[in-house]
Amino acid sequence: xxxxxxxxxxxxTNDQLVTNDEQAQDAVxxxxxxxxxxxxxxxxxxxxxxxRIAWVGEAASAPTDADEIVDAAGQAVIPGxxxxxxxxxxxxxxxxxxxxxxxxxxxxxxxxxxxVEATRAASDDELRTRLASFVAELHAQGxxxxxxxxxxxxxxxxxxxxxRLAGEVTDEVTxxxxxxxxxxxxNGMGSDGDSDDYVTLVCGAxxxxxxxHARWIDxxxxxxxxxxxxxxxxxxxxxxxxxxxxxxxxQLGPGDGVQLAVELGAASxxxxxxxxxxxxxxxxxxxxxxxxxxxxxxxxKQPYPDAKRLVDAGATVALASDCNPGSSFTSSxxxxxxxxxxxxxxxxxxxxxxxxxxxxxxxxxxxVGRIVPGARADLVLLxxxxxxxxxxxxxxxxxxxxxxxxxxx
Length: 409
What we know:
Strand content: 15-25%
Domain Amidohydrolase-related: 77-384
Largest sheet: 8 strands, mixed
Shape: globular
Distance between the termini: 15 Å
Structural class: alpha/beta
EC number: 3.5.2.7
Binding site for Zn(2+): 85, 87, 248, 322
Radius of gyration: 21 Å
GO molecular function: imidazolonepropionase activity
Binding site for N-formimidoyl-L-glutamate: 152, 324, 326
C-alpha cells in the first residue's frame, strides 16, 4: 500500500537538509531558537510505501502513483513520539500515595515495594491485558516507539515474565532487576550485605533469565536503591551479556549516576534532576543522552531540571514520560512537551525534537523519530497548523491520526 499524505501546512522531518526555511518562518510567525533542527517543510507531502517512508517534499511535486491519498487539510504532521523510558508492566494502584504527596508528604523510592507485591500477585493474562491498554493509550496520543522496563518483579521468575510480556509489545525491553532491593533481601537495618546478595542474584540467575528477552540493562543508582559500585557491577554484567547500558541517576539528589553512565558509555542517563557543572560538562562531551522526565517532577513536586542549561552546553536531551504507577502515571508526551516548555526552558521546537529524535538517540535508533526516506513510517497528524500548538494548547487532544509502520491506527 502506497499512501500519500498531502496538503500538509507544516511537516516536521527532523532533517535540516529538506527545510524550506523561509516558508517555515512565515508559518510559525517568528523564528524560534532551535527550529532549524526540525527540518520544517511547508505546503508539503509525504509518501508511505508499506512500513517505510518513500518520499518527502513539497506537495506540488508529490508522486502521483499512490493507492490512497490522505488530505491533511492544512494541518501539521510530525514524527511519532519516541518514549524511551516507561514502566508499563505492573499490577496494583498507587493513587493513595499520590494523594498523600499532594498533601505534603515527600516522595521516596519506597513505594515501589507495594507495586512489586501487586505485580507478583497478578497473573500473566492480567498483566498482558493491562499492558495492551497502555499500548493503545500510547498510540492514541501519538507515541509510536516506546521502551518498557521490568523492575516490579524482583525475583528471577517474575522479572523473566515481565521481560517476556514486554517483549510482546516492543523490541525496546530493558531489564531493571536492580530497581530496589526486594523485602526478602532487606533486613530493615540498611545492611549492605543483604543488598550485595541481591546484586549477586541480579548479575547471575536473574540476568540469565531476562537477557534473552531484553535489549538493555538499567539500574537505579540512587540513595535508597543501589550504590555506585553495586550499580557498576550490574551494568558491567549486563554489558558482558551484550545488553546496552542505561542508568537511572541523579533523581533524588546529587550523585554518581551521570558520571557512571558517561564512563560506561551508556546510551542514556535518565532523570538528571540534580546536576553539577561537572555532570553537565561530562554529558556535553559524550554521546550519552540526558533523558529528562517532566512527569516525575510534576507528580512528586521536585524541582524541574534546567533543560536549557543542558542544551546550551551541547548535551543531547531527550524527553520521556516515565509512565509508572508511582512517580509519573502519565503516558502523554504532549504533556511532557508542555511542561518542558513552560518550566524547563526549552523552546517548542527543542521540546518536540527531544521527544522524537532525542528519544530515538536515547535508544540508539536512526530509523524512528524522523520523517525521511527509508525511515519507518511513523507519523502523527495534528489537529493544528503547527507543532507549537503542542505546548500552546496544553491538555487539548490534538492527535488527529497516527500511523505506526505505515499502518493507520
